[in-house]
Write a structure and sequence with these properties.
This protein has about 325 residues and is mainly α. About 70% of the residues lie in helices and about 0% in strands. The longest helix is centred in the last third of the chain and has 16 residues, at about 305-320.
Length: about 325
């Protein structure tokens, strides 16, 4: 049976050779030499990948190193590098080889496989090398790095914040920005308006409020006239949670942009009554009245819409031309 298994390593189809390699590796640890020879001669990348795993299990570090560095198949090189990382604990030269390959290898699918699969907990050099690939030209590589960051890959907050600004692909930029704001809320003041808009719903805390830095970013951009596509839900949350922190001028702008999302309308009218409105505030108030004016005709004093209508009537008087 032993002779038959050994013969199967270099005969039959690829599946037969894989089964023979595993059987030989599991039954006969002393068969390393035969498997090393087979790895050098095996034409199928799929079989060579299995041979890498078997050889790694047998402790054939040098053979795995050779395959990691020189195999013509990116998939085999990646499998060998992942195996080498697992074998590299306490051997920085093995980790260094993987780092060098990660930087120098011509194949991006090799990089993606290593980033996805390598165990980096005890490999600080490799962890740093993977984090630096967040700036790699290949989008798939950057996606793989972000996935590892989400799984806990350490990364410098400043580097992550910078990528949140310069990343060209929107979906990836959103993911990076979400991670960056967790590490450094001031990133919210630097990312583009579209990304900030998409990010806002995830920034509200359990108390329904935005972090102060994020709130300032939104209000400053809106005040400056930057096109920030706030939707009605976000406006509703902003006005409900931060009404007293928002200027009257900006409250009216937000309410005019999303009248049906407006909360605390009575308080808004009360603030409008304190001092005369400027031209822009009157225009915003007129827009609110025009949009919500269909409730002005309600008369039942116990009806919520009637109360709302009376509030709008008071606002209409305040914004009427003098």
């Amino acid at each position: 049976e032993q002779v038959e298994i050994e013969g199967g390593v270099d005969r039959g189809d690829a599946a037969d050779r894989v089964r023979a390699a595993w059987a030989l590796g599991l039954r006969e640890p002393a068969a390393s030499e035969l498997l090393v020879e087979r790895a050098a001669e095996e034409p199928s990348p799929g079989v060579r990948r299995h041979l890498v795993v078997v050889l790694a299990g047998l402790g054939e570090t040098e053979c795995v190193r050779v395959l990691a560095d020189h195999d013509p198949s990116p998939a085999v090189r990646a499998t060998a590098c992942v195996a080498l990382v697992r074998m590299a604990r306490g051997a920085p030269e093995h980790e260094q080889l993987v780092v060098d390959r990660l930087v120098q290898d011509p194949a991006d699918d090799f990089r993606v496989r290593v980033i996805d699969e390598a165990e980096i907990d005890a490999c600080p050099m490799l962890a740093r090398a993977i984090a630096e690939l967040l700036a790699h030209p290949c989008e798939e590589v950057r996606h793989a790095v972000v996935a590892r960051i989400e799984d806990g890959l350490p990364i410098d907050a400043a580097a992550l914040g910078y990528r949140a600004i310069v990343e060209p692909e929107f979906g990836l930029r959103y993911q990076i920005a979400r991670l960056a704001v967790r590490l450094d809320p001031s990133v919210a003041t630097r990312i583009d308006a579209e990304t900030l808009h998409s990010l806002l719903p995830s920034l509200f805390g359990a108390d329904g409020r935005l972090p102060p830095v994020a709130l300032d970013a939104v209000l400053n951009r809106w005040s400056a006239g930057e096109h920030l596509l706030l939707d009605g839900i976000v406006v509703h949350q902003l006005l409900a949670a931060h009404f007293d922190e928002i200027s009257r001028h900006l409250l009216l702008q937000l309410a005019a942009a999303h009248p049906w999302a407006t909360t605390r309308l009575e308080d808004l009218v009360e603030r409008c009554a304190r001092t005369p409105l400027d031209h822009a505030e009157r225009a915003a108030g007129e827009a609110i009245v025009a949009e919500l004016g269909d409730v002005l005709e309600e008369e039942d004093e116990h009806d919520v819409s009637a109360r709302h209508g009376r509030t709008l009537g008071a606002l209409a008087q305040l914004v009427a031309p003098r």
